[in-house]
Amino acid sequence: MERPRRLRSPLLRPLVAEVELSPKHLILPLFVKEGGEMEEVSSMPGVFRHPLSGLPRVAEEALKAGLGGVILFGVLPQEAKDPMGKGAYAEDGVVQRAIRLLKQEFPELLVVADTCLCEYTDHGHCGVVKEGPLGFYVDNDATLDLLARTALSQAQAGADVVAPSAMMDGQVKAIREALDRGGFAHVPILSYAVKYASAFYGPFREAAQSAPGFGDRSGYQMDPRAGLWDALREAALDDLEGADMLMVKPALPYLDVLSALKGRFAKPLFAYQVSGEYAMLKAAVLKGWLDERRAVLESLFALRRAGAQGILTYYALEAARWLKEA
After folding, report:
1. I want to staple 157 with a disulfide (CB 3.0 to 4.6 A). Which of 18, 96, 136, 212 is the partner?
2. 192 a known binding residue?
3. Average per-residue pLDDT for the chain
4. pTM
5. With contact defined as beta carbons under 8 Å apart, do 74 and 120 qualify?
6. Residue 206 has pLDDT above 90, yes or no
7. CA 65, 247, 220, 175: dihedral to nearest 10 degrees?
8. How large is the average pLDDT for residues 194-222?
9. Neighbouring C-alpha atoms within 13 Å toward the C-beta of 207
10. Active site at which residues (predicted)?
C-alpha cells in the first residue's frame, strides 16, 4: 500500500517542500496622484491612491518588508487628460516625478514604471483612437511612438524597469529601440506579454480612474477563450523583440498559461495578481468566509509553483509580514 502521508509529518513537510515564497518575490503596485489626501479605493479595501508627498512612507515600508520592488501607476483628474495621453510622457508627469522622488530618497528600491496611456487619455483607451467604418478603433502603429516616448521619459526619470502593458503589436521593439537610442540600453523591459481582456480589472479602473469612456479593450487585449497558441505567440513575439522578462495577467485564472510559458522561455516570468483577484479575496475575508492569511499565501504559492519568478500583488506588504511570522 502506498502511503504518501509518510512525508506529511511536521518535521518532514518543510524538508520536502519544493516551492519557496519570500518577500523578495513580491512587487507592490502603487497608485500615485499629484496632491491631496491619501484616498482608499472603495472596491479594494486597504489599497490607496497616494499623493506624491506620501510615497516615501510607503517606499520605506516596502524596503523594510524586503519586497522585490514597487510598480507605479499614475492617477490624473479627468480635466488633466487629453486624447493623446500627454501626461504619460510629460517630463513633469506624475509618474516621472514619483520615480525621481523615490530614486533620490531610496536608490536601493527597485522602481518599475507601468508604460501605458490609458490612465492619461480622456477616452480611457490604451492608444490613439480613430474612427473607422465600424466605429472607433485604436490605431496600433500611431500608438507605438507614444509608448516609446513614455518609456524613454520614465527611464530618464530613473526607472529601473519599464513595463509596457498596452498590448500593441510591436510595442516592445519600439520601446527597446527608443531606449537604446536614448542611452538606456541597460534598462530592462518587463513585458505584459500575455494580457487578457479580463473582467478582473474592474477595481483597478476605479483606482486609476482609467475605465474606457466607450467600447472595451477586447480589440487589443487577448480573448480568454483562446487556446495556448495565442499566449505562446504573444510571448514569443515579445521575446524576439527584446523583452527581458515576461508577464501573465491576470494570474490565478491563467495558471495553465503561466506553466506553459515556464516550459518554453528561458526568461524570468511574472504574474500579476490583479485588482479583481484581490477584491474577491478581501470581500470573502470581510464576510468571514476565508482565513485571509492562509488564502492569500496559498494563492501566491500556486503562482510560484506554476512558474512565476515574481508576483505583482496588492497583498505584498501583508504577505511579507505573514511570511516573516511563519
Report:
1. 96
2. no
3. 95
4. 0.95
5. yes
6. no
7. 90
8. 88
9. 28
10. 195, 249
**What region does 307 belong to: left with phi over 0, alpha with psi -120 to 50, or beta?**
left
Judge whether 126 is annotated as a binding position. Answer: yes
> Residue 90: what pLDDT?
95
Distance, in Å, from the CA atom of 204 to the CA atom of 276, rounded to the nearest integer, reads: 8
Q: Where are the alpha helices (DSSP H) in 158-254?
A: 171-181, 202-208, 228-241
Say which of 64, 130, 173, 195 is annotated catalytic: 195
173 labelled catalytic = no
Strands 161-164 and 111-115: parallel
For the residues of 264-278, what is the DSSP string, one character each?
T-SS-EEEEE-HHHH
For helices 171-181 and 140-157, the axis angle rounded to 10 degrees is 40
Taking 90 as the threshold, does the pLDDT of residue 104 lie above it? yes
Distance from the first to the final alpha carbon of the chain: 34
At 94 the pLDDT is 97
DSSP 53: G
Task: Tell me what pLDDT residue 87 has.
Answer: 95
| Domains observed in the chain | 21-325 (3.20.20.70)
